[in-house]
Structure formats: C-alpha cells, structure tokens
Amino acid sequence: MKIHILLSTLLIPYFLFQNTVIAAPTINWNTKKLNTTVMQGTYQLHKVKIKFNQNFETVAPVVDPKLQKWVTVSPSYIYDIKTGQEKEFSISISIPEDEPLDKYRGKLRIANVAQDGSRKNIGSPFHIVFTIDKLVINDTLPPDPGELGKMTIEGIDADADGLRDDLQRYIAIKYQSSEKLRRVMTDLAKANQDFILNVDNDTLFLEARKNSSRQLACLFYIDPENSMNHFQKLRAKSYNTETRFDANIRGNSKLGGTIITLPENNKAQCSFDPDSLDN
Fold first, then answer.
1. Same domain for 242 and 157?
2. Of 31, 110, 117, 154, which one has the fewest beta carbons inside 10 Å?
3. What is the model's pTM?
4. Residues 176 and 108 placed together within one structural domain of the fold
5. Which domain does 69 fall in, by range?
6. In whole angstroms, what is the distance from residue 189 CA to residue 169 CA?
7. Which residues of the chain have pLDDT under 70?
8. How far apart are CA 212 and CA 179, in angstroms?
9. 69 lies in a domain?
10. How far is CA 238 from CA 5, 72, 74, 167, 258, in A?
11. CA gap 123, 26 in Å, rounded
C-alpha cells in the first residue's frame, strides 16, 4: 500500500503536466526591438507589424510617458480585429534641433480598450531604443542661400533641380532617414512653389493647387498621424517672406468658389511607389 500511494503521488503531477496547454501569446510582433540613431533636428518614420491571435473590438498603442516627447505611434486606434489578422503601426521619432545628445529606452505596448474606455495591456511590449546624435549635413547639398535667397519670390536654385535651395536643404536634412518622406515632401514643396510663382496664370496656378492636393494625399498615406504637422511646417518654410506670403494669399483668394475634388486613393497620388521603399 505504501508503494501504491507513493506511485500515485508521483503520477499525479505527471498527468497534470501532460494535460496542461500553454496558451499562445495574444499578439506577435514581427520584430521585438527598434534600435536607431536620430540626429538633432531630424525626423524618422518606422513601421512595425503585429499579428493578433484572438479577436479584439478595439486596441490602442501606448508609448512609455518618458518617450512621448519624441515618439508618436499611428493609428491611434484599430477596431474590429479578427483572429489571425496582421496590422501595421507607424512609429515616428521627431528630435528638436537643440535636443541634448543622449540615449533613451522605453516600451511600446498594445492595450485592449474596453467599452467603458478602460485599458489593459496585452501581450509582450515592443522595445524602442534611440540615440540622439549631432546633426551631420550632407556636403552634396547646395549652400544655404541665407538672406540672399529671400530677395526674390523665386529664391535661389543653384543646382537647378527645380526647387529653391532653402527648401531642398530643409527637406534633405529633416527627413534624411526616410526616402519616402523626402520624396513626397519634395513633390509637395515644388507644388507649393509653383502655386505662388504662377499666381497670375489662371491655368498653371490652378494645376499647381491640384498637384498640391495630390501630394498632400500621398503624404497622408505615408504618415497619416503627422501629415498635417509636416504640411504646416513646410508651408511656413515655403511662404517665408512677405512677397511669398502675399502671393499665397492672393492665389487662395482667386480660388474662392472653386471646387477641387480630393482624390479617393491616397497611394495612387504619389509620383512613386511608397510601398517599394523600406523607409
């Protein structure tokens, strides 16, 4: 009897272990970590994908508070997720020009959002590590035109690429880590420039405004959460003198009552295939 009791005691945990099912994680990241270097005064855009292993009504990305000064994630919410679906999030890192050089670590979590608004983190977090480094300017860029570039509405285009040198430098430096953003912001800057240069030509300035709308749609496809922020900052750079600002106001006044239909397919408005570029 003693032996029987001893064997039973040993077999109980064995059978319990045999019948235990290890639950699959609720989410799977396609990569577990982002480790990058971001220079002062620049902006980076990264993509990460998540596979969901169960249904969720609403989920939201949650960035560690200590990183929220520089890091944003879009979309802000994803709805009606089915088991097995894969979703993509964009991680944006924007560093001011005067940000001290340092290294930062934090986490991005995914939270299940209940109907009452309460949130509960699900699955394992995604790790974000970035080092803020000193800005290095590409020596192939044309020189900064400075005040000389503000003397005429056309400005200076020393390398004859069709874009004012001050705008070319701004885009190349700020978005040096993202070819997608460099290309769409260059297209958008050229459209804004054409708008004020052709304000007295009804046909050309209207086409420039339509082109601006197309490039804004492309920008929204590439970086929806921050597209208007990019757009507003570029506008300030584009119309940075009284003459340029007045030409923009005059053009917008001429558009009064004009209906410009916004495109339905944002990606199709791009002059390039953004999905073919890694960043």
1. yes
2. 117
3. 0.78
4. no
5. 27-133
6. 12
7. 1-25, 257-263
8. 19
9. yes
10. 86, 25, 27, 7, 23
11. 5
